[in-house]
Amino acid sequence: MATKTTRAKTANYRCAECGWTTAKWVGRCGECQAWGTVEEAGEVIARTTAAATVARPAQRIADVDSTTAAYQATGVDELDRVLGGGLVPGAVILLAGEPGVGKSTLLLDVAAKVGNLGREVLYVTGEESTAQVKLRAERIGAVSDFLYLSAETDLGQALGQVEQVKPALLIVDSVQTLSSAAVDGSAGGVSQVREVAASLIAAAKERNMTTLLVGHVTKDGSIAGPRLLEHLVDVVCQFDGDRHSRLRLLRAVKNRYGPTDEVGCFDLTEEGIVGLADPSGLFVSRTKEPVSGTCITVTLEGKRPLVAEVQALLAETSNAQARRATSGLDSSRVAMLLAVLQQRASMNLAKDDSYVATVGGVKLSEPATDLAVALAVASAKMNKPLPAQLIAFGEVGLAGEVRPIPGIARRIQEAERLGFTHAVVPASPNGPGAVPTGFHVREVSTLTEALKLLF
Fold it and tell me: Is 99 marked within a binding site?
């Protein structure tokens, strides 16, 4: 009697955002908690794969040649800083950002600089024609004899271009515009993005070809497509900035070959994009006389210290509930600091509208800026300006204490380099560390102590 082979049927509903699977339809994903993203994926049959003949035997780690994966500089210093030294041959890098932030401009500049080093670069665009890309390249001065352009939306055609050009660097703008004829669904869908990414990654590893992929983002700022895309690539970079500001920040969210605590600063202009080795001056206003309601702080973006200015304005109101407006700062954290000032420092702010903002469009999310925000609000309330050469940083707790923060010595050195002479810092057991000659540091343990010192 013939035996019957049984095949196990597994989950056949999949989340379009993160790839989570379930046996029945649900309205909300159980993994990423997104609504309306669970779709039918068809019947999935679980199969086992038998062991195959080994084509390339495993090597001892001591015998592996690591020189083939050495960093190669791009000529864009800020990008090299974020990546840890440059591009690694065979690495696949995903660059995500909002529309209009400058992703294509940055990568076109990188393509031209790598091409000027004598290495072939293939730029595949699915959003523009080659003529449009050339116009932008001429405008920003990103033209090279080793830079090849191709306008393709078909994955097979794009891989054919790779076979023909044999580039050292491949740039795909963007991964959501390519589609494969072997997979159902429109370009940008979960299945298509998964297939396109897998094919490009396989080509990159096989040819030892560095690949830069441009990724779209959703309205909440996350990378569009399945979360699997971020797991497959080697490096994930986030490129962001305020639409009304020229400053752009590049951060590495994931990096298999280097650190993830570095930040690259760029200045986006009509002539192109330029790296900023010293962007601190963009975030400080230049006034001849000290103004009440302003305080300078030093924040750490990765390992880089940035000097920024916090401004506060209080206006008496007759409304039952005072208004709280912020720009560049976390509104809930500013509201907490206002409550601490009222309860711990006996400062009546209930009848004042408060407006707290940063200069230059910079976003300050580090808790170390708490003390500067509190001092700026106190200065605005008392209408007394702080000393012009003073900086302040420290985390403020609900009990009114000023907590220690990392990198105090590095922040002081940056402030001294820019001409500041005094600092109010949190008290710590080991002290503020090495202090430059002529620089004065005052340690405080509570917010009340800081207010008595300055006012």
Answer: yes
Residue 100 marked in a binding site: yes
Q: Is 447 exposed, middle or buried (0-12, 13-18, 19+ CB in 10 A)?
A: buried
> Of the candidates 43, 41, 44, which has an alpha carbon nearest to the alpha carbon of residue 184?
41
Out of 133-142, 246-255, 298-307, the most confident range is 133-142
Distance CA 172, CA 212 (A): 6
Residue where the block lists tokens 């298509």: 192
Closest CA to 22 of 4, 44, 5: 44
The reply to whether 101 sits in an annotated binding site is: yes
Alpha-carbon distance 369 to 296, whole Å?
9
Tell me: is residue 397 an annotated ligand-binding position: no
Known binding residue 98? Answer is yes
DSSP string computed for 406-453: S-HHHHHHHHHHTT--EEEEE--TT-S----TT-EEEEESBHHHHHHH
449 appears as a binding residue in the annotation: no
Give me the mean pLDDT over the 368-390 stretch: 95
Residue 8 banded pLDDT, cuts 50, 70, 90: very low
Is 102 assigned a ligand-binding role in the annotation? yes
List the structure tokens of 327.
């720009």
CATH class of the domain comprising 69-277? alpha beta
Residues facing 215 on adjacent strands: 96
CATH classification code of 282-454: 3.30.230.10
More confident residue, 199 or 19: 199
User: What are 136-156's pLDDT values in tens digits?
Assistant: 999 999 999 999 999 999 999
According to the annotation, is 363 in a ligand binding site?
no
Tell me the mean pLDDT in the region 13-17: 79
**Alpha-carbon distance values, 423 to 133, 137, 285, 296, 415 (Å):** 49, 46, 18, 10, 9
Q: Kindly indicate the confidence band of residue 7, based on its pLDDT and cuts at 50, 70 and 90.
A: very low
Burial class (CB in 10 A: 0-12, 13-18, 19+), 92: buried
The Cα-based distances of 177 to 2, 170, 259, 434 in angstroms read: 50, 15, 30, 53
pLDDT of residue 73: 92
